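thread: overnight batch results

M.L. [08:02]
morning all. the overnight job finished for the chain we discussed friday. pasting input first so we're all looking at the same thing
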Amino acid sequence: MSLSFASDHENIGLAHHDSEARTLPIARLAELKPYLEDANLPKAAADLKSLTLEFLKRDIRAAGFVDDVSLYGFLLDSDPSSCSLEALIERRLDLRAGPRADERALFIHELDERLRPEIDRRNFRKLYEDIELPLTRVLAGMEHEGIRIDSTELARLSRLLEAEVARLTAEIHALAGREFNIASPQQLGRVLFEEMNLPAPVRYGRGKTISTAADVLESLAVEHEIVRKVLGFRQVSKLKGTYVDALPALVDPATGRIHTSFNQMGAATGRLSSSNPNLQNIPIKTELGREIRAAFIPREGWQLVVADYSQIELRLLAHMSEDPVLIDAFRNGEDIHTRTAAEVMGVPPMLVTREARNNAKAVNFGIVTASAASAWRPTWASRRKRRGLHQGLL
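M.L. [08:03]
and the structure it wrote out:
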């Protein structure tokens, strides 16, 4: 049996085999609950995570879904753009997906018949069954549960940030000698580079517009107070608009929580991403960012627990390469990026600057990427001695 939700979520398509399919209004989904919750009846779907979430909203605990053609497509192609049902139908079947739910269910059945053997041939079955398939249920549960925020605290922060924006605006206008729209790149560029004669970067585009991008302004911030204040204005404005004011508006009135979407197939590397809203990008490096994070709260009597892998990619590299320097650094609890910079520069770790550590970090993770893409695996020591790496750290 194959299942597929129609794009309008008003119907569900059911296909028993490649020639028999039916469409059922979503309002009658409860009639299928015994079947959908039967773990002994194997079923297939496309984007099982989203399907499971729709079932949870209707108090249906899906079981027996053993084939997810979207996950199959993602594992086989490592291309986030090619694993939607529509893309799979076009790419694998050379057809176009119509709006009818029963037709889409038939397509799922045919895709399942084609992709399942390919997964086995590529030795992806264990990865699929042990990691990817169980993860769909975990992510659906997380999305369904959502997370609480303290709207009162965010409202307080909004007032503070509004006052800070007003203060910075007044100070920038005073330094410029006139009022203008600081958020307008054109007006800002005219004030900074034409009226105040700051060193102008290269112009770009058809209209030869002067860039006011962050990297351009950061290069001028050390010597020019108005640029420092513009960067502060942008930071505060972004925090206010993107997080402090936006998050409360995204709270579901029915649950009192924010429900993000976790994208299991959103990156070719397999890394999860979050959208609508992106809860993986809440700032933390500034005091204001930490206050925003503090506005995420658990239910009464519960606590939030934070856990993270420490440099998991490099630990795997140390294990697989058996490099003595890497292994020694991890066993001694050293910061691996500082150790790398110290080894290359020939200085004690305490003399490694922040910039040198950041360069070493980029090199370290670049080596992980290169190692994954090539069968050539020289030792870590030989890589450290390469001229290009040494120059990159100096």
